[in-house]
Amino acid sequence: MNTFIKNAAQIVPSVRQLAWQELEFYSFIHFGINTFTDKEWGLGDEDPALFNPTTYNAQQWVEVCKSAGMNGLILTCKHHDGFCLWPSAYTEYSVKNSPWQGGNGDIVKAVSDACREGGIRFGVYLSPWDRHDQRYGSSLYNDYFKNQLRELLTHYGDIFCVWFDGACGEGPNGLKQVYDWDGYYQVIRELQPNAMISVCGPDVRWCGNEAGHTRESEWSVVPEELQDCEKIQEESQHVDDGEFSRRINSREENLGSREAIRGKDKLIWYPAEVNTSIRPGWFYHAAEDDKVRSVEDLLNIYYKSVGGNSTFLLNLPPDRRGLIHENDAMRMAELGRILTSTFRHNLASGAHATATETMNENHDVNRIFDGNKNTYWCQREGMEHAVIEIDLNLERMFDTIVLKEHIQSGQRIEKLRIDYLHQGKWKFLCECTVVGYKRICQFPEVTARYVRLTIEESRWCPTLSAFEVYLSERNFAKLVTE
Predict the structure, then answer these.
(1) How many domains does the chain have?
(2) Could you tell me the strand order of the sheet in which 121-126 lies?
(3) Domain stop point among 278, 309, 342
(4) pLDDT, tens digit (0-9, with 9 covering 90-100), for 11-28
(5) Residue 67: HSE in the Cβ half-sphere, 13 Å Cα cutoff
(6) 175: domain range?
(7) Can you give the CATH number for the domain in which 366 is found?
(8) Which of 217, 140, 118, 128 is nearest to 164 (CA)?
(9) What is the pLDDT of residues 107-155, one digit of tens each?
């Protein structure tokens, strides 16, 4: 076996990366001065007096997120226009000079408190690009930006994520900034060591587009050089042309295959996040009230992101009232109802299995049914192929199978297929490439008792920590009707 493949198989996530991956689904909240100007990108010269939500309610935001099954919320504390949603001591361009709550309000505090009370995690987005601040383009701006980070990371409790984009356009003085990324990271690691640094950062990788497009094979183990892709100024987003956000670059489809990592100096665990908006824009626009994504579209992205070894970051833009619009809220509740119904009953609970080989008793193949993320099946090192036969104990109708690797041991599986026994013969059901943290396989419903999983390609030796079987909400309803 190639040494580089064995080495790749042993690269594992950090504790913070594992905790982040387990969140699976969380929201972006784009809210700010743009909400009141009907713009996507403000120029930085907007009057703070424009910011005045009439019935602002952070608890409503959190309840909408929870209704969809989301586990976190990331707030745009400062977008490219430079307007701050907290009363920063380092600029006058903030909510403290708006009429909202007489200039005494703090959106960041209200949202962080609501998240904590609602039992979901809170994260912050802080745009490095600032079209308002006159220090932009000088070393003084980097100091200013670090001071803003310190405010956000010390005054608002536990932060699960600091989300940076790489936008780097001109400031109000016509200058561009050379961002002190390493200095920013140092502040975050010092003040919030458990926080993920996302996209322009060392912990989470952007999927490569904002359209909800996902890869068929999303590897978490990739060449180290990918950490710098979004930080290269020449490739950054600096024009609001309407095209960048919907870009799907086919050159980026293969990032972690054997061919992609061969000959690379260093590989790292750098997992992907899929981010998109529930509407065409990122900020609220009344003209888009009838353009909210369909539940079918959202389910498709969910299954391909959360179910494709990524996480799903979905933007929900509050309106000028300071509320998530009724159309968006209704769609989120509908999505959550379907997901809850689909994944309520694991039909493989109590199933039994046999495998062609098992390393030892501690890694028995029936560990895949115990619901414990820390237990798993594996076989001897160097054995790349395996067959697992599963007895569901009863004939079951199902259309969804969920697989999980024990990623604390690395990402190994490269290709597998699943068959089911029908009238004494094995029939093809589905196939997939990588599994990673989670792979959700969907197919037309079948009825069977016996299922066979064949791992056709893997690195060093495969692991499997979960095998779950479900009947989707739509087919369950049809079954009950019949």
Answers:
(1) 2
(2) 196-199, 161-164, 121-126, 72-78, 25-29, 310-315, 272-277, 205-206
(3) 342
(4) 999 999 999 999 999 999
(5) 16
(6) 3-342
(7) 2.60.120.260
(8) 128
(9) 999 999 999 999 999 999 999 999 999 999 999 999 999 999 999 999 9
